[in-house]
């Protein structure tokens, strides 16, 4: 059953609010609208890129009926905190999972991630976590007066690294969902994140080439969250 069906089956529709992340997944906001409810955006945890329980609690109202939690880039959301919030407030908590990969592929990506974690400089590498499958290896490229994310991406693409910006525009900035809300971590993540290649089929030489291309730009500061 899809998100629309699950919301309708739970009796959620006209007059209800459903909290969703604005960092990606415009399709979720669309599905909330199709169910007849109003999508409300909450900020993310800067380490997980998933909904932050404190931020969800802050935007929940008497009209809030559900929260849709998205597991991001292969890292599980903090379901314990969000589940407890749902129980306390009487909210339906739905999970929006990512496509799974064979165990061998996941194991190779995890090994690649460990290699990159120990060798990349000038970018903030993803925070390791139990169960992280590294569907995408997402780093931060803060500006700090030095090469920003977009300039960094152009430079390493020029060296043959196939990187991509995972979320170009947060959902609350799209014309059809524009909201006058303050989501600083969502905005910062959209400005700073860059997905580097981590396919299980990559060779050690390809990983070394990736590291060399990134580290050649060197010296970016890594501010704390």
TrEMBL record:
Q: Which GO terms describe its molecular function?
A: transaminase activity
Which controlled-vocabulary keywords does the entry list? Aminotransferase, Pyridoxal phosphate, Transferase
Q: Which Pfam families match?
A: DegT_DnrJ_EryC1
Q: Which prosthetic group or cofactor does it need?
A: pyridoxal 5'-phosphate
Question: What organism is this sequence from?
Answer: Streptomyces solicavernae
Q: What family classification does the UniProt entry report for this protein?
A: Belongs to the DegT/DnrJ/EryC1 family. L-glutamine:2-deoxy-scyllo-inosose/scyllo-inosose aminotransferase subfamily.
Q: What is this protein called?
A: DegT/DnrJ/EryC1/StrS family aminotransferase
Specify whether Transferase is a keyword of the entry.
yes
**Which InterPro entries would you find in this protein's record?**
DegT/StrS_aminotransferase, PyrdxlP-dep_Trfase, PyrdxlP-dep_Trfase_major, PyrdxlP-dep_Trfase_small
């Amino acid at each position: 059953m899809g998100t629309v069906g699950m919301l309708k089956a739970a009796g959620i529709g006209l007059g209800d609010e459903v909290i969703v992340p604005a960092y990606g997944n415009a399709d979720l906001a669309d599905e909330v609208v199709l169910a007849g409810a109003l999508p409300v955006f909450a900020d993310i945890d800067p380490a997980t890129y998933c909904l932050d329980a404190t931020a969800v609690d802050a935007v929940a109202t008497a009209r809030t009926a559900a929260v849709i939690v998205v597991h991001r880039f292969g890292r599980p959301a903090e379901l314990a905190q969000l589940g407890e919030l749902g129980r306390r407030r009487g909210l339906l908590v739905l999970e929006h999972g990512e496509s799974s990969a064979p165990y061998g592929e996941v194991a190779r990506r995890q090994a690649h991630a460990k290699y990159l974690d120990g060798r990349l400089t000038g970018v903030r590498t993803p925070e390791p976590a139990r169960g992280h499958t590294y569907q995408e290896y997402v780093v931060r490229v803060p500006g700090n007066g030095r090469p920003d994310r977009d300039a960094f991406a152009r430079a390493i693409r020029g060296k043959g690294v196939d990187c991509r910006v995972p979320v170009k525009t947060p959902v609350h900035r799209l014309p059809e969902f524009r909201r006058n809300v303050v989501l600083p971590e969502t905005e910062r993540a959209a400005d700073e994140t860059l997905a580097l290649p981590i396919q299980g089929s990559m060779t050690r030489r390809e990983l070394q080439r990736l590291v060399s291309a990134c580290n050649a730009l060197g010296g970016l500061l890594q501010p704390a969250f």
